[in-house]
Amino acid sequence: MKNLSVIAALLGGAAIGAALGLLFAPEKGEDTRNKIAEILRKKGIKLSRSEMNTLVDEIASEMSVEGSE
Length: 69
Hints:
Elements (H helix, E strand, L loop, with lengths): L1 H22 L5 H14 L6 H19 L2
């Protein structure tokens, strides 16, 4: 069971890292959001524009909380 938790944490961290890498890439925000939405659609996850913005805001707030620790 511990191995499963480690794998889940690793995959979650990789997904968040990839999303953050895209968010901070030197592209326009709209282009980056479209790329993230396309990747999620390919994985079978469909988000509206407001849901995507909420996701981006949540990731950004997590980063600011972790950065202040």
